[in-house]
Specification:
Length: 362
């Protein structure tokens, strides 16, 4: 296979930065199942991700090429891109709170690491496609958007915005060091497509959940809520709990990444908003209530002050991504939450849920 051939078939060599992480390991598994040789660059600093790498190696053997290195190491990045047919860039510092505590490290990982990868690909494999994992935080806290609070959570007063969500023509507004570092990296990727002809595209992600997620209070909140509830521990909500997010199962997200790669010739230079969309928009309190239904017991909920950069409401308008990538409807959040509860129960020594009923309606 030659560089730039956007075909993820047997024999392709693909780099996945952050490939031992939650989304990265799920994506790597799907690529490996196609017969791709997947080079996984990961520092293994996040607790538990070494188990994901071991799981991938056990399932796929020599098709997995681990590169234990930090994305800030430009020399390691340069070696990792040699001979690749394309790359998915998911390695990142992922928490707003961590970016506020150590903005220099956040900058170095998210912007410096992305720049190092762009330069390495430009020099070593200029025709190899790159798909970058960005964030909905590039749109800021939406403070200029009027909301009303309902029993189902915050809702924009603009009916079109409430119906479809935030589209890609929304102006960028970087908040917090995390928003700045990811937003700047997002723009660098798009500009390398424009300035150097690099086949590259961006997915600005909402809240992704699913198997292999090791959720913490700072990142991966859906899994974190479930893990707390399964352990009989309280769930902390920052703000009033009426915040609304569109949540998306990781399997649907991996399908979007693969489709973006394989359609790179038609989407290069574009950014897409990605998440569960309006059909999978749910408030934190509503999700906690569904956890109560699934487990048959009510987790205790505590409240604390709002955190910096938190959005009262964010729902991705995914119509552009759905059209450009040819994607089917996503899994209902209720069904996905039940599936994740079962997986976490089986894999984290937690008590088995009493009820795992699935509902087709979001």
């Amino acid at each position: 296979m030659t560089a730039g051939a956007a075909n993820l078939s047997e024999g392709a060599v693909v780099l996945v930065t952050g490939g031992a992480g939650f989304i990265g390991s799920n994506l790597a598994d799907r690529l490996l199942a196609r017969g791709c040789r997947v080079r996984i660059l990961d520092s293994l600093e996040r607790p538990g991700v070494e188990r994901n790498l071991a799981w991938l190696s056990a399932r796929h053997g020599p098709l997995v090429e681990p590169v234990i290195a930090d994305v800030r190491d430009a020399g390691a990045i340069a070696l990792a891109v040699r001979g690749v047919d394309g790359a998915f860039h998911l390695a990142a510092q992922v928490a707003v709170t961590t970016s506020l505590a150590d903005p220099a490290a956040d900058f170095a990982v998210n912007l410096g690491g992305t720049f190092a990868l762009l330069e390495a690909l430009r020099r070593e494999r200029p025709g190899a496609p790159l798909i970058f994992a960005s964030t909905n935080k590039v749109y800021g806290d939406l403070a200029d958007t009027p909301f009303r609070r309902t029993d189902a959570g915050y809702v924009p007063r603009d009916p079109a915005l409430a119906r479809h969500g935030v589209a890609e023509d929304r102006g960028l507004d970087f908040h917090t060091p995390y928003g700045c570092s990811k937003g700047a990296a997002d723009q660098y990727v798009l500009d390398y497509a424009r300035s150097f002809g690099m086949p590259a595209a961006v997915l600005r992600m909402s809240c992704i959940y699913g198997e292999r997620q090791m959720g913490t209070e700072d990142q991966g909140w859906v899994a974190h809520f479930l893990l707390r509830a399964l352990a009989g521990e309280p769930i902390m909500l920052y703000g009033d709990g009426h915040q609304v997010r569109d949540i998306c199962d990781v399997a649907d997200t991996c399908a979007a990444y693969i489709a973006a790669f394989e359609r790179i010739e038609t989407i290069t230079g574009r950014a897409f908003n990605w998440g569960g969309g309006a059909d999978n928009a749910v408030s934190l309190l509503t999700l906690v209530a569904e956890i109560r239904r699934i487990l048959g017991t009510a987790p205790r909920v505590d409240f604390a002050d709002w955190r910096a950069g938190d959005q009262r409401w964010f729902v991705a308008d995914t119509r552009a991504a759905d059209a450009a990538l040819g994607l089917p409807a996503r899994k209902s959040w209720r069904s996905g939450l039940a599936d994740l509860a079962a997986w976490l129960s089986a894999n984290h020594s937690a008590p088995a849920p009493r009820v795992l009923a699935r509902e087709s309606a979001a």
